Amino acid sequence: MDTNSLIFTLIIGALAGFLAGKIMKGKGFGIIGNIVVGVIGAILGGFLFGLLGMTAGGMVGSLVMATIGAIVLLYVVGLIKKI
């Protein structure tokens, strides 16, 4: 992975984590937390989109996919915390 791809991934991860935090809890998790949630959400979103036979291209598609994955991640973590 080259430097530009890494920076792009971190920016998309931070934005996706921030958006997911706003949607699910009403607040963000700090820059590091947003990046972690967003990057893991992007992986999860890519997996879920693949299961549905869907793809997301470009910056906006990547952001949507990562945000949906991050929302699912936060929802599952919330369910686990309740147990």
Would you give an account of this structure?
The protein is mainly alpha-helical. The protein has one domain. The protein is built from 3 helices and no strands. The protein starts with a helix and ends with a helix. The mean pLDDT is 87.
Summarize this, please?
Helix content is 83%, strand content 0%. It is an all-alpha fold.
Topology:
Elements: H1 3-24, H2 30-51, H3 58-82
Instruction: Report the sheet-strand fraction.
Output: under 5%
SSE run: HHH
Counting DSSP H or I runs of 4 or more residues, the number of helices is: 3
What is the number of E strands?
0
| Overall shape | globular
The SS-based structural class is mainly alpha
Domains, number: 1
Largest sheet properties: none
Tell me, rounded to a whole number, the average pLDDT. 87
CA gyration radius, whole angstroms: 12 Å
Low-pLDDT runs: none
Question: What is the straight-line distance between the termini?
Answer: 38 Å
Helix percentage: over 70%
